Protein: Pantothenate synthetase
Amino acid sequence: MQILRNIAEVKDFLILNQGKEIGFVPTMGALHAGHESLIKKSVQDNEVSIVSVFVNPTQFLAGEDLEKYPRDEAHDIEVAKAAGATAIFLPDVSQMYPSDISIKAPSALASILEGATRPGHFDGVCTILAKFFNIIRPMRAYFGKKDTQQLIIVQNLVKSLFFDIEIVPCDIIRAGDGLALSSRNSYLDESELIEACKLYRALVKAKALVSAGTFSSDVIKAEMAKVLNPLKIDYIEICDRELNSINQIQIDKSIILIAAYVGKTRLIDNLWL
Ligand code: PAF
Structure:
C-alpha cells in the first residue's frame, strides 16, 4: 500500500494508475471495523482503492471535539493495508485549505437533525469532499449509513455539482451488543458503553412495533423514548428517504434516526426500514 502525504504524490499515483477504476473511502481516521468494511467493499468493486485520513477542521463547531478527536496514524495505516487499500492519503490542513473558499450544503437538508445543533457542519463536510473528489476523481465513493444524513447530503452534492461519481451506501457495522461502531465510542467508559446500547435497543423496539402493525410515528417515538430513558435525547425522528418528516412509517421508504447523549458524548444511530 502506498502512503501519500501530499497532493503531488496523489497526482503521480493517479498517472501510474490511469484508466483504472478508482474507489475512494474518505475517513477522519481512528479506523474501526466499520471503515474496514467500506474499504473491503471498495477493494471488491474497483481496481484501485484510495483511503483518505483527514480530521477536517471545518466540519467541527467551536467547542466540539476537534482537538481531542482520536488520531492514530500508525493504526490507520495498518487497518487500511490489511483491508486491501492500494493507497492511503494523509494530507495536512495547510494543503487541503490553501484558502477559506467553501461550499454550502443544501440548506433544507443541512439545517435539520444533525444540522439543527451543528450549524455549518455539513458545509464543512461538502467542502472537504468536493476537494477530495476533485483531487482523486474516483469512479465510486463509499459512505456508511451510520451517518445517513451525511450520505444523503453527499448524494445531493454529487448531483448538484455534476461530479461523475457513484456514491455507494454501506450498511452500519455493529458490535455484538448492537452498538453502531463509531470513532467517538472511544470516549465512552465501561458503564457508558452499556448505556450506549440503548440507542440500538430503541431501534429494535421500533422495528418490533412496526412488525406488529404499529405505523404511527408519534407512538413509535414515544416507545423509543422509554427505551432510551434516562439518556438525554437530542432527537428521535422518523423520515422518508429524503429526510422529510413523516407521520406514518411506510415500509421500505422510511428511516428512523436518533441522536442522544451518553454522558458527555453525543451518539447517533438509525434504521432504514
Ligand atoms: O464521515 C466522516 O468521517 C467525515 O465526515 C468525512 C466524510 C470523512 C468528511 O470529512
